[in-house]
Write a structure and sequence with these properties.
about 475 residues, four-stranded mixed beta sheet, 16 helices
Length: about 475
Amino acid sequence: MLIKSNKELNARSIEEFSRIMLPTLLNEEIIFEVYETKEIIKIETKIEKLNKKIEFEYKNLGSKIEDQVLTMAKISLLKLMEVKYPWGSLMGVRPTKVLRRLLVNSCTYDEAREILKNFYMVTDKKIDLMETVVKKEMELMDKKYINLYVGIPFCPTKCKYCSFASYEINGGVGRFYDDFVLALLKEIEIVGKYLKTYDKKISSIYFGGGTPSTLNEKDLDLVLKTFIENIDMSTVKEFTFEAGREDSLNIDKLRILKKYSVDRISLNPQSFNLDTLKRVNRKFNRENFDLIYKEAKKLNFIVNMDFIIGLPEETTEEIIATVEEIKKYDIDNLTIHCLSFKRASKLFKESQDRENIDRALIEEKIEEIVKEKNMKPYYMYRQKNIIEWGENIGYSKDGKESIFNIEMIEENQNTMALGGGGISKVVVEERNGIDYIERYVNPKDPALYIRELDKRCSEKIEMFEKYK
């Protein structure tokens, strides 16, 4: 792509936008003429080879959006090619951040809707979703706290769609399991000691991975016991353990979780279609799943279930059958993901063929289910290469929303992350709803995590101290 302009524009940003949104333009020469005053910005966009030209004019929004000229250059390409997406020109992972920034900059919801619709080209339905989510988020977000994440990078098997820090416990990397547990115990002690001096208290804790319930009973008990003994739990509002796979669970493990104050678990079938699950290398025993679910309800856990729309070769009818099965479970949260082909996943390397599914019909069925269960959207995010430009949505009964999910997706709180692949973040508010975020990543590889533990803990704490 060759870009010519009378005003300096970020060509790489425009090219990346085109790669995702308008790949047919990647070999074209594009000419932008920019006219800017305090009142308006106008861009004339031309592709002479295609004999196409368009003018896009909009009021100067000032600090309400970042780099309006560059944003308008991208939007003008959609207008030029007459391409429309439900999310308009919003390509990013967190569209709700756009709405929140407009609100921070003194827009009313009506004014923000006008900008989202007529500037960013977002449909009314997606704006409605954004408004519902943002209103709930703003009730629950609180920068005065931090959240804590613990990554366990082992799974019973590696799902083909997965790109997270995850290694098969019975594979070659599994030989580091015992030393990983010992290293994690040490990190919990180091971080716990530091956090007692830190000026922000913990609001939410999340054990993820991988599959944390891959820990055997002895190690699960030891890790949680050490955690409770070293971490100040006095301000913690929720403690989540992603017990996502029934093939890693039993009743003893559930009781251990309960003993150490875990109050939320996530049981994630992803699909109830056994053939689908076999195709993505995921084991599933419905009888054991139902047993675990019933015991979790007896123990009064808040229960979430995750499902993925668009798994390989799964038809519309099979997806709807899975959604119908959700009716049988009295869950508190429901997360619906749209399949995204991640570069680090086996699925990306094998095939990116997509089944032609009726997304509108599936969404209609999901809306029916969540209405029956009295759930509403409370967080959402998007991913590149997501099927049919959809989104991932978390639904919840009132009062059962996951604070961690909201804070993590919106990048509103600092995150202290332990374990394999954990990403610590310090969020520094700068201006007009824009934050500066500095990250520190723990090694995904268990061997490297074990070897570099002391050094990594020191560097991570140094990052937190820098912005204390």
